[in-house]
Amino acid sequence: MSAQTEELKALTGTTTVVDARGTSCPGPILAAKKAIGGVPVGGVMEVLATDSGTLKDLPAWSKKMGHDFMGHYEDSGYLRLFLKKMK
Asked: Where are the domains of the chain?
């Protein structure tokens, strides 16, 4: 397990969680867009997704919106992706 994965796992419980499991593109991104407004600047949002397309969509959306995509890891058949709200 990478150091980044360990770091991300340590964040669990301190994040705003968006559960988009079972939805396919663009579901996870739409869910993230809807939830980001409730995240304080500097806060972390965790997106739970089963659609592998989210692995490229969420980092691209984060960058476009000026947020910091922190990484992801796989957990029991789904993805946990993390981003920090920057503005």
From this structure: 3-84
> Which residues in 52-82 are b (16+ Cβ under 10 Å) and which e?
eebeebbbebbeeeebeebebbeeeeebbbb
Catalytic, 27? Answer: no
* Given the residues 5, 16, 25, 69, the one annotated as active site: 25
Fold of the domain built from segment(s) 3-84: Translation Initiation Factor IF3 (3.30.110)
| Average pLDDT along the chain, 87 residues, taken 10 residues at a time | 85 87 94 96 96 96 97 95 96
